[in-house]
Structure prediction request, 522 residues.
Amino acid sequence: MYGKVMSACLQGIEGQVIEVESDISSGLPQINLVGLPDSAVRESVERVRSAIKNCGFTFPLDRITVNLAPADLRKEGSSFDLAIALGILLTTGQLPADIVERTLFIGELALDGALRPVPGVLSMVHAAKQAGMRRICLPEANAAEAALIEGVNVYALAKLADFKNWNGMEETSFLFKARVDDPSSTAPAADTRSLYNDNYSDVSGQHQVKRALMIAAAGMHNILLIGPPGTGKTMLVKRMPTILPPMYDREALEVTKIYSASGKLPDRSSLMRKRPFRAPHHTISAAGLAGGGSIPKPGEVSLAHRGILFLDELPEFTRSALEVLRQPLEERCVTIARARAVYTFPSQFILAAAMNPCPCGFFGEDSDKHVCTCSPQKIIHYRSRISGPLLDRIDLHVEVPKPSYAQLHERNLHQSSEEMLEQVLRAHATQQVRYADTGIRYNNELSGKLLRRFCALTAEGEQLLNASFDALGLSARAHDRILRLALTIADLDQCTQIEPQHVAEAIQYRNLDKKQSPHVSI
Prediction:
């Protein structure tokens, strides 16, 4: 006797449709599970056996072979429990065969037959839809998440015994109905400003820093804030999500799939609308930052996809952890190779970092009460914890000065997040029109031919950049980043070409490129 049921599992953060084949023949009572299952899948045998018995079905006392195809793909997780149980019940004739027609079955079984939720359902259902399936049966707790994918019928079940009352796929008592987002839409999502309590209007002074953060948001550029303790570096960065535009539905689907696969989805009933803001502690390992493990899972760089990765006290992170940032910053993805598979996780984010100018934090302070006690060698060693190649990948290096008493108590209105966001949205609209036929969306993605095509300088701007290239000892990568920054500044100023003042402002944000001794203030 032979039967086949469709199920799914995760490969990285993407879903993979799996055929669960069951064969029952005469022989000693045993179950053989084949098809490269991991330990969690192998343990499903006992869960399935108990669930079938405790739901009033009969478990066959025969030789049972269950194959998970394709057989050369390693299977992980507990999402196959329901499919394995149904395969046995269908093969033994205890359930009608029409139950499994063009239907995907996902779910973990408890010993009493209850269906428990599994992570990564959004990716699995998306893969099933692409494979032509239109019906999904899964646990009630996963139903709202599965319904986010448009064009599939979701059937929510509480326990394996529910199939005894199944009257065909039109059975409305199990059909889950919910509002469905369209993840294929390219229209921007609803305004998300009401989701934030913080606002840049709360920040006194620091107008130049707020300008730099607005430039970073307008072009999705990486930014590093450098200043003594207490100047508001962390506070300024934490308000940055308030000036980022809402995610498009397609972007929201990408982010939600990552959090679903990681088991970190805060709300299963809707796509994530707030751009992620991840702020790992400086003791994080390289694997925790980039992702990894025996079964690779997304790290912080992927959890920050389409949002912000904030690294406070940047030099305190280990060198190995910082160096793994190179690939995601350059290629916008992380590739993790294992013996049996290669996993690729998306990681397109804004890197926002903060650091002190020296170990004690007061280098360059013009104050009698705060005098730097660090030797030049100590300062050089402190800054050398951040490698040149990593600094090259950070577009803006911004000094955050200590605000004066007058600035803290100035009565004039401060620029609000709403005003800054309005300028950012205008710049983004300009970029959408400019890159309509290129496959990119923001200025920070420009490279190669596209960089030369869209970053044409005036003669004066070319002359200024040429002089700065030799004076600052810029690398080729830093040169390109200055061009991208200048283009973003021009977009904010609503200029159609890059003027010398745009180049000059972009150059001033490359403070750490200067060939200077540690005695020179940054």
